[in-house]
Automatic annotation (TrEMBL):
Superkingdom of the source species: Bacteria
Any one of the GO BP annotations: L-cysteine catabolic process to pyruvate
Organism from which the protein derives: Ancylobacter tetraedralis
Catalyzed reaction equations: an S-substituted L-cysteine + H2O = a thiol + pyruvate + NH4(+); L,L-cystathionine + H2O = L-homocysteine + pyruvate + NH4(+)
Cofactors named for this entry: pyridoxal 5'-phosphate
Molecular function via GO: cysteine-S-conjugate beta-lyase activity; pyridoxal phosphate binding
Cross-referenced CDD domains: CGS_like
Keyword check for NADP: no
Protein known as: Cystathionine beta-lyase
Family statement drawn from the similarity comment of this UniProt entry: Belongs to the trans-sulfuration enzymes family.
Amino acid sequence: MSRQTGGANRPAFAVETELVVAGRDPQRYDGFVNTPIVRGSTVLSPTVADLEGHAGRYTYGRRGNPTLEGLEQAMCVLEGGAGVVLTPSGLSAVSIGLLSVLQAGDHLLMVDTCYHPTRRICDVVLKRYGIETTYYDPLAGAGIEQLIRPNTRAIFLEAPGSQSFEMQDIPAIVEVAQRRGIVTLMDNTWATPLFFRPHDAGVDISIQAGTKYISGHSDINIGIISANAAQFDRVKGTYGDLGLTIAPEDAFLAARGLRTLAVRLARHQQSALTIAHWLAGRPEVARVLHPGLPDDPGHAVWKRDFKGASGLFSLILKPVSKASVAAMLDHLALFGMGYSWGGFESLIIPFDCRSSRTATHWEPGGPTLRLHIGLEDPADLIADLEQGFARLRAADDAG
Ligand SMILES: *Cc1c(COP(=O)(O)O)cnc(C)c1O
């Protein structure tokens, strides 16, 4: 039901156009532009034959709902896979993707720079069910082959790396995986299918926290799993067997965000690059971690494989005290301090990913900050950061 239905009947459009037209059917809803929020568990059948033959388009709320289906279809067009399922959060999209392909006795290769809570899925949940995880260096590339065991069933990628923004050589890893019959999954939340399409690169299962750019307004948690024809039935089956569904209000809000994704992302990209360049020239900053910057170690791979960069990146400050960093962050006027990102608003958080790395060594040599650049005027954001740096320097001089 969540398979792409429009493909055979109408021409394929540019992605900006698909964001506007995909997964909508105004004729079906008396001309209303948006697919309405349909609530419901029970779906009635007029006759015994219809009931037993599942003749209706829907059979039960958890098994299919028009509001969810509209978003699934739109995401399917964008991802270019065989089908999509919607999950209650980005993290549940990761766990369901992994549970779909792994079973007891299997071995998983997980990128060392994955989103931190993904590690807990591996170290706590999968471990409990007899699945072993080895973390690998994000820069492994084709060298990942050395880590493959007879029971290696899946390789999980995420690029750029969580918080530290290392790029991965995705085509090299996929080539090894395909040759060895191993399933690949990728957390593609940072790029979205606008800037990188995992299935086009041969990745089997593409995962996103729709919480971030897809919904784009910091008002819901939602996960999106897209799978190719080889893996979709497994993913859809696991999803259904585990009894998952999401609220139609959340699907509606994500679909509403999706319509403006291209214009929002273009702006996030442009403003983030402007601010990243400005930060790279600041005396307080040791290094900016953004693959879109020409001197970033991941720049060549990013440029080869990705069509753009979103609004999230990090920086390493030259050594200063924790109190000086707090003096900078505590009084920012525009940058909020909070988890998540991908909304219209700018955010900044201090982070320390040393405890989230086991296959690689992370020693930045100074305090680290992660920034999400929102849709505000970048000049206002730069002024806010400039005042923050003045407070940082004053606190550092006083300390
Ligand atoms: C936020 C995030 C998730 C998890 O999404 P939630 O909706 O918070 O569960 C997963 N992966 C990445 C890369 C994320 O940034």
